[in-house]
Amino acid sequence: MIVPVAPVLELEDVRKSFGSQAALVGASFSLGPAERLALLGPNGAGKTTLIRCLAGRTRPDAGQIRMLGQAIGSGGVRDFLGVVPQEIAVYSDLTTRENLTVFGRFHGLRGRILRERVRWALGWTGLEPRSSDLVGTFSGGMKRRVNLACGVLHRPKVLLLDEPTVGVDPQSREQIFRMLEELSEAGTAILLTTHHLDEAQTNSDRIVIIDRGAVVASGTFDDLVRETVGGDRVVRLRVDRPLDEAAEPALNRHRGGDDGSAIRRAGDHVLTARIGDVARELPGLIRTVREAGYGVDDVEVRSPSLHHVFLHLTGRQLRD
Amino acid sequence: MVWTVFTTHVRRLLHNRVELLLTFVVPVVFFSVFALIFARGVGMTPRVRVAIVDEAATPVSGALSEAFAENPGLRLMPDGDGVGWTRREAERSVRRGGVSMAIVLHEQRGRLAADLLADSSDQVAGQVVEAIVTRGLAMGSLPGRPGGAGLAGASGRRGPAVSGAPAETGRTFPGAPSGRGDVAIAQAGFTDADSLAADVKEDVETAATPRVRVVDVMGDDKANPVISMYAAGIAVMFLLFGATTGGGVLLEEKESHTLERLLSTRLTMDQLLLGKWFYLTAVGIVQVTVMFVWGQAVFGVDLRGHLDGFAMMTLVTASAAAAFGLLLATLCKTRGQLNALAVIVVLTMSALGGSMVPRYVMSPELRQAGLWTFNAWALDGYDKVFWRDLPAAELSPQLGVLAACGFGFLVVARLMAMRWETE
Known about the structure:
By secondary structure, chain A is an alpha/beta fold. Helices cover 32% and strands 26% of the residues of chain A.
């Protein structure tokens, strides 16, 4: 029997306007314990306002935000929340250890617990050898790790991350997501905004897409794909000679995918088609092309991506 | 290419209002401030505040007293009613800074003489009054030349500074630039230097020489008053610069989003501002202390002898300066704005408040305007401590004003910072 778990964070019909500009027009979603949730949306969609509302920095005009059952503005909530802004919001003229100690103190840690948490953070970030170096001398990836560590010293139940990997090389990105995975395994719920769709796809349990101040889709990647672009794979076939119109009747005999669409020309030598079940339908598709008189030089099968989902839902690229 | 570089910079300058302000407005503002101080472009000619004590009580001394009271270079204190004081009252007033000098007319071996009770920190006043009194006594003692008529005629005329040795004088100004008998008349009220010198020479030759004795009531054992005045002036100016620079960290934190992060922890804005205020105050105290310790070690400022007054003034001044730095920071949106504002405000306050030029050389209007600045109150307080040796209770006006300012600045800074807490 599955026991329903109460969400650690709940948003209900959150609204916020700045003058005549509506930033949030009724955003609602929730975040479960230890869940990793990616918040996606084009620029100006309301992500930053939403994060600020969650961090208690912006007061919503209407709606409710609750963390562990308490209203977000109430006193004790701050101890459950970790915030890691997009900017490197640490003191570059302090050392790694000094930064960690300072932010630990601001989060209410003292004495032995503080020292232990700082030691843990230095190990977690892999910055122990650089603990006495000024953060201003670090590379972008190292600064990001310090930035991240300063937000989790107090073991928050919910961690808000705004673009945690912006401007970071692939190795550092990978390291940061490994660190986040450790946190998640330790029970911290993570809400992150990102412009990297692949990051959201591979490093989150659930995705919330926000556009024009409202949540337009929410669910796992598979849910979103199924509900939007469908589960079909797109197959691209490169044929051995230029396609001519005489072959079309033979090619049109093939019907594939959820919508039963035909094979389409995508260039002089390229055909595309949609198939639902790769193992079952791909051999038949190749056979149809051969029967139409063409040899198949290359086959590429593409799964639907978050990019397709995003475009489908918002009609815009992520960075529009 | 060169032209492109040139036009690019012109365009950037035109887009940058702060740089435009610093380039074109600040120099004009400062020129105007110093023009007002030195050229007296606005307001009345500075007059030396004096009290007159007539111990001789003769018709001639009475006429001289009236003539001095009418002299345009002198301003009888308090409010024109400084005649009638005793020597002790006059001396006390000089010590407290109520008047710059007291003229005590008395008889000496049957002749009219004058003791000038002086505050030697005001070197201009000392020389001006000495010249006026010397000439007045010389003319007043001429046989057949009633002092009142002669002096009234002389006092009606105004003109440039003159040098001369009209009468025997005795000076005891520590650090004063001129020597015995060398009288520089800056505000004596004469038009023609040569005619004055000729007059005086004739008087001296034809009459008994009157005596003018300058008595430094502040004491001869002190270091040059200019040293402690400048130690305080420079210390307060840099205290303000330091405080505004320190306050600017708040804007840096805001710009880097560190402020937002800090406020998402247990830290509140009240705690943040108070923490910064304590820090800036502590740094300010150390800064001023270092300045005065250096002043004592190298220039002989008596810090050890005035520790209580120094501690009180420094604590209150540093705390008010810290609050002022935070106020300026919270009034601005960016660090660049703050830098421009700090340069303008701090330099203007320093110029008007006496950190750059002693306030006693300013016109009464500018002196009055100086009281709206932070520096003037702080410097007056340090002056009372180091120069006038006044007891701590005498610092109440300065301590009160500075403490009230500090409190007011902090309250306004807190109110301004509310906009950063939540939207």
